[in-house]
Design a protein that fits this description.
With 159 residues, the chain is mainly beta. The chain has a single domain (11-125, 134-155), classed as YaeB-like (Elongation Factor Tu (Ef-tu), domain 3, Beta Barrel). Helices cover 8% and strands 31% of the residues. The chain has 3 helices and 8 strands, in the order E-E-E-H-E-E-E-E-E-H-H. It has helices spanning 53-56, 124-127, 145-148, and strands at 11-16, 19-24, 40-46, 60-62, 71-73, 86-97, 102-105, 114-121. The strands form 2 sheets. It has a 6-stranded antiparallel β-barrel. 19% of the residues are buried. The model has no long low-confidence stretch (mean pLDDT 94).
Amino acid sequence: MNKNFVMNQIGVIHANEEGFYLKVKEEFRDALIGIEDYKYINVMWWFSKSDNITDRNNLVEEKPYHKGPEKLGIFATRSPQRPNPIALSCSCITYVDREKGIVGLTYIDANDNTPLLDIKPYIPSLDRVEEVTSPKWSKHWPENVESSGDFNWEEEFNF
């Protein structure tokens, strides 16, 4: 059964000289009530620059990581080129201005003016995994979001 889905863009992600923040559209601002009680959120966004037929048909990535295997299926990567260009980032909240629809972040790996799809609170009992398994070639990556800010991710990715 094939279905087409409709998503509503709830705002925009900003990543520029002013910092990192989410700007939620006015009609969705009431949905921010209580978000300031969380330190971390999961942000779903649209890889808008990869929303084209070529990128959506990419199923295999050739050497996506400098220290990784020669080939990986797209679902084993964080590549923006995928059948549905949906991204997920865990981000730390720095402030919330519900009236203006602003959620300040320490960092997010999105481009400026990226479409924002959804925000969910990071809840350890649902989102945290105690025993993680990852490939040997990525064992040198940081173990958590807090320490990944100092890591040079540009040296890792080929996409």
